[in-house]
């Protein structure tokens, strides 16, 4: 049974040292998915052991250098999550890693417990697939930097979603909390939110898919996170005047790393209306070519 009061984490409620947000499987009460948001001052550094998890270092604001396995990766990064697609670095399990930043910045560490130890790698920004999903008021942009079919990981799946002001994202509501071969994956998920303007906000809904399941209706702002152990999730609604960003981090027990979802039966028909409408002309908010 979900402890719904612990599924919404407002900014500042999960601080750990230089990490403004630190969610590990123990804190979340599940088996695999983790997320840290690291804040470094000028000439700052952060050392960590990866343990039994694989990690992706993703610049949110600023650039950094990632040292691991006798390799180092210079991440150019970006001014903000609304400023362009970023490069990133993959750090394998059972490794020591260090992140340094001359100018400082904010960096997401998306992680997942895993079995295989894959090589450390660099992910170039121009190779990140940028997808426009939905149409009309459901239009949003998805940066598939570590989607299941775009970048190899053992269990980790992670994408960025940018939603223009006033639009509904993560819609129609969908779920991935059961193993149904060829139809649905079992995946835990974390949503981490940022907004383009000061005072920006939106709303996020998770409704139960089973008795006693996850049930959240939260007003979300920059730095907030929502944990989704199960349930129908969506919509994520961007308030008028406020473009919204969220980072999705997922992992689960399935033998195959895949993102298979089931739409809520009351709203699945909405997806069929998309070919009848144009995409929001504000999209894409940016592409790989816009990265500074």
Topology at a glance:
Elements lengths: L7 E2 L9 E5 L1 H4 L4 E8 L3 E6 L3 E16 L2 E8 L9 E4 L4 E6 L3 E9 L7 E3 L6 E4 L6 E7 L10 E7 L4 E2 L4 E2 L1 E4 L3 E3 L1 E8 L6 E6 L8 E5 L4 E4 L3 E7 L5 E8 L10 E2 L5 H4 L20
Antiparallel strand pairs: 1-21, 2-3, 3-9, 4-8, 5-6, 5-7, 5-8, 5-9, 7-10, 11-12, 12-13, 13-23, 14-22, 15-24, 16-17, 18-21, 18-23, 19-20, 19-22
Keywords:
47% strand; mainly beta; Deoxy-glucuronate_isom_IolB; 292 residues; RmlC-like_jellyroll; 9-stranded antiparallel β-sheet; 2 helices; 24 strands; 7-stranded antiparallel β-sheet; isomerase; KduI/IolB_isomerase; isomerase activity; Jelly Rolls
Question: What does this 3D model show about the protein?
Answer:
This is 5-deoxy-glucuronate isomerase. GO terms for molecular function: isomerase activity. Keywords: Isomerase. Pfam families: KduI. Residues 272-292 are annotated as: Disordered. The longest helix is centred in the N-terminal third of the chain and has 4 residues, at 25-28. The chain is built from 2 helices and 24 strands. It has helices at 25-28, 269-272, and strands at 8-9, 19-23, 33-40, 44-49, 53-68, 71-78, 88-91, 96-101, 105-113, 121-123, 130-133, 140-146, 157-163, 168-169, 174-175, 177-180, 184-186, 188-195, 202-207, 216-220, 225-228, 232-238, 244-251, 262-263. The protein has a single domain, classed as Sandwich (Jelly Rolls). It has 292 residues and is an all-beta fold. The mean pLDDT is 95. Strands 2, 3, 4, 5, 6, 7, 8, 9 and 10 form a 9-stranded antiparallel beta sheet that branches. Strand 16 (177-180) and strand 17 (184-186) form a beta hairpin. The relative contact order is 0.21.
């Amino acid at each position: 049974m979900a402890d719904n009061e612990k599924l919404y984490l407002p900014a500042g409620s999960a601080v750990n040292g230089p990490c403004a947000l630190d969610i590990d499987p123990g804190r979340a009460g599940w088996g695999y998915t983790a997320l840290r948001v690291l804040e470094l001052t000028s000439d700052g550094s952060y050392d960590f052991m990866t343990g039994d998890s694989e990690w992706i270092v993703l610049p949110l604001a600023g650039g950094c250098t990632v040292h691991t396995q006798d390799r180092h990766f210079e991440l150019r990064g970006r001014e903000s999550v609304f400023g362009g697609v970023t490069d990133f670095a993959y750090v394998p399990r059972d490794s020591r890693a260090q992140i340094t930043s001359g100018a400082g910045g904010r960096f997401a560490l998306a992680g997942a417990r895993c079995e295989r130890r894959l090589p450390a790698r660099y992910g170039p920004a121009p190779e990140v697939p940028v997808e426009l999903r939905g149409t009309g008021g459901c239009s949003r942009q998805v940066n598939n930097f570590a989607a299941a079919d775009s970048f190899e990981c053992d269990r980790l799946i992670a994408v960025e979603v940018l939603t223009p002001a006033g639009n509904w994202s993560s819609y129609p509501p969908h779920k991935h909390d059961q193993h149904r071969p060829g139809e649905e994956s079992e995946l835990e998920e974390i949503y981490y939110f940022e907004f383009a303007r000061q005072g920006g906000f939106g709303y996020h809904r998770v409704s139960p898919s089973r008795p006693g399941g996850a049930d959240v209706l939260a007003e979300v702002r920059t730095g907030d996170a929502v944990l989704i152990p199960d349930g129908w999730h969506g919509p994520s609604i961007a308030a008028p005047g406020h473009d919204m960003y969220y980072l999705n981090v997922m992992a689960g027990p399935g033998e195959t790393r895949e993102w298979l979802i089931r739409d809520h039966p009351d709203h699945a028909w909405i997806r069929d209306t998309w070919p009848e409408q144009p995409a929001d002309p504000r999209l894409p908010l940016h592409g790989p070519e816009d990265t500074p």
